[in-house]
Amino acid sequence: MLNEMVKIIKAALSTVAVIVLLGRFVEAQNVMDATFVVLARTHQNDTNTTNPLKAVTMPCYRDTVQYMLDFNTSKTYARSMYYSTGGIRLDMDLTWNIKDVGDFTMCRRSVRSEMHGTSFVGKYCLTDTNVNPIYELTIGVCLPNSCSDEDVQILVRAGYFERDPALPSWTDTRTMCSPVSYPWRWSDFLAIFICVVLSVFIVCCTIYDIIRRRRKIKKKKEEASKISPENSGLQNLEDNGEVQESAEGPTPVQNRTTLTAEVMIEEPSQPPISAKDSKTKGKLADVAIAFSILDTGSKILNTNPAKGSIGCLNGIRVISMFWIIVFHTWLFLTGIGYLRNVRYVQEYIKTQHAAYFLINGELGVEAFFVLGGLLVSYLTLKQIDKSGGARKVSWLRFFAHRYLRLTPAYAFILLLYSTITIHMGEGIWWPYWYPFQHICNTWWANLLYIHNWYPFPGSTSECMGWSWYLSVDMQLYFISPLFIVLLYNRWVIGIVVSVITTLCSFAISAYLNFALSRSIGTPHSYGEPALPEGSWLYTKPYYRITQYLIGIILGYVLFRLKGKKVKIHKVLNVFLWCCSTIVAYLVIYGPYFSTDENPTPQAASILYLSTHRFLLSACIGWVIFACATGNGGPVDRFLSWRGWLPLARVNYCAYLLHLTVILMYTWSLKYLWFYSNFNLAAVSIAMVAITYALAVIFTMVIEIPIIGLEKIFFPVKNKKN
After folding, report:
1. Exposed, middle or buried: residue 677 (CB in 10 Å: 0-12, 13-18, 19+)?
2. Cα(310)–Cα(321) distance, integer angstroms
3. If 547 and its partner were Cys, which of 361, 435, 476, 617 is the partner (CB 3.0–4.6 Å)?
């Protein structure tokens, strides 16, 4: 094969052409320049014993040489491929940008027509080369599609060594190429099949519901037409037989059941229907209605709060979700290699105080733990009280309800995430879906809510990594009865156990923060970590239980108050609001004051990292307590606004979907993203809008119907239990 390569070069290049190429490309910055030089030189060595391209496959070698020759003669497609390739930036020291991704779209549109027995299209590849122990150069290259990933690595690496022969021998190139299309797997077809079947079923159920509603309206009109003329002045028909005023005076209202029976007499006789068949038909009808878009849509859009609900929870839930979406948008666009103006963003973080509101956006999840603990405590205590004691509560139903409530929507979105999502777009980083979908082979750990532990010690980069929250929440939910029952039976013991658990959590967190040598603010090391890399804290219930316990205790307090208002003196109320605001400010913006010039001592860092989530959760707890007891003022009116209610109903699916939406946008980029406050605001608003739009759909077709099915097939026989 090597001899064939030599013949190709000798036949294609004259000595003059070689000189032109060497003179034209050796000083240029495009990464292909040096690679072309290597290709041009191969004709000078017949033995090819030192040819760095000898491992390149023959089709790739032939087409790359043809591409080089056509570029030298200014063929349009070759120029498109060349200018689609990135280069080594000369302004790295000024911009801190070590990436040049080229032009993805122009490369994919570069096509060499059939000529001299060969044709090919442009293949875009992103390469990372460790030319320095500190960083890697990221370059986008455009080569013929006959080149494999290994061929691209060899060609680019040879170009780097041609530019700088002094590079260390360990210099290597990693390549990620974007295929024209992605292979279809059986799981992809399964996901499509489920989506089609579900869509057809929902359409049929909706059609049935429309027909049912029209028949119901028609039946009411027929019943109204059967009323005798002397009762024509009736304004309303009531089932209880009360007296209504008519034009001629008081008239007893006929029972609606009687009227229906009279109408039925006139109809042809029907064969008797057994109670079992009637019950079966009734359940089938209920199932159809549960999946009807009319029914689920009306439930989402209903802005009437349930009786006895705590209105401020809806606003807190939705605003926290907004904060998390904006944070993840900021994180992925500015922190993981997609940024163009790197230096500007790094300096912006150091100088702009407001930036830490974005950087610490992951604190928004603390509100979910507080709300989760509060709701499970408040509702379970009411159930225990109605049932006459904890022993009379169906704890099996307690656990099964939670699993059925969360899992169907989670499983469906997980299926789509790990299968057909990869076929929905293209971009420079779109091939990242491959490894992300591959790790979803452990999907069973997600559905068992243990993937924050498996594989130990866990990581946020596992399958649907952001769903670690669901695993932690489920684990805390399963142990919550231990605290709730204690609070109900012996509240003093319950408080003591909660305090001891909180102190143990602080101690574990302090030890792990010390062992991991974690710091706040500008990263700096206090020494070598004593533990291997992994999620030892962030995704673990022993780290999050303090926030959950705040919610449980708050739920107990509100349960004991039974909806009563608590009058707090205005001065004390203002003082508590000020304290809460100051503490929340220090938690969010505290790391801003830790800089390279003035690093925080390790003891202070450990204290902050071990307690800051608890403190912020306590502030959230105060806001809920104040609003629920009549001390919230304008804050309560804002958080209890009815407009939050429809958004709160789809919040769960919004959480499941939001990072998939952000990843699809980020990985479909065809260029490096330029940061500005306006750009971030525009993209964040778009991510919020798209996420909630999709969340409405998934809530309508999965979440609400499943809740309806649970009520149909597992009804509560005893209202007190």
Report:
1. exposed
2. 18
3. 617
Query: Which tokens in the block code for residue 188?
Result: 């992809």
First to last CA, the chain: 80
CA–CA gap between residue 543 and residue 284 (Å, rounded):
45
75 three-state secondary structure: coil
| pLDDT above 80 for 48 | no
In the chain, % of residues over pLDDT 70: 84
Contact 168, 131 (CB under 8 A): no
- Please enumerate in sequence order all residues whose Cβ is within 8 A of that of 466, keeping only pairs 6 or more positions apart, or say none: 328, 460, 655, 658, 659
Rounded Cα gap, residues 399 and 677, in angstroms:
45
Q: What number is the average pLDDT over the span 464-470?
A: 93
The pair phi, psi for residue 250, each rounded to 5°, is -65, 135
Give the CA radius of gyration of the chain.
33
Alpha carbons within 13 angstroms on the beta-carbon side of residue 608 total 21
Q: Where are the beta strands (DSSP E) in 130-223?
A: 137-144, 173-177
Identity (one letter) of the amino acid at 390? A
CB 238 within 8 A of CB 326: no
DSSP-assigned letters across all residues of 465-515? GGGHHHHHHHHHHHHHHHHHHHHHH-HHHHHHHHHHHHHHHHHHHHHHHHH
**How is 28-54 classified by DSSP, letter by letter?**
--BHHHHHHHHHHHGGG-SS-TT-TTT
Q: How far apart are CA 439 and CA 464, in angstroms?
A: 9
Q: What pLDDT, on a 0 to 100 scale, did the predictor assign at position 15?
A: 32
Residues 341/95, Cβ–Cβ less than 8 Å: yes
Tokens of 36: 């072309």
Q: For residue 684, what pLDDT is reported?
A: 95
Q: How far apart are CA 158 and CA 714, in angstroms?
A: 67
> What tokens does 695 get?
């969340």
Contact 406, 470 (CB under 8 A): yes
Residue 66 CA to residue 56 CA, distance in Å, equals 15
Q: How sure is the predictor about 530, in pLDDT bands with cuts at 50, 70 and 90?
A: low
With contact defined as beta carbons under 8 Å apart, do 409 and 156 qualify? no
* Amino acid at the residue 670: K
Q: At what angle do helices 186-225 and 293-301 cross, to 10 degrees?
A: 80
565/513 Cα distance (integer angstroms): 41
pLDDT value at position 12? 40
237 pLDDT band (50/70/90 cuts)?
Answer: very low
pTM: 0.86
Q: 296 CB contacts (<8 Å, ≥6 apart)?
A: 290, 699, 700, 701, 704, 705
Q: Do 52 and 169 touch, CB atoms closer than 8 A?
A: no
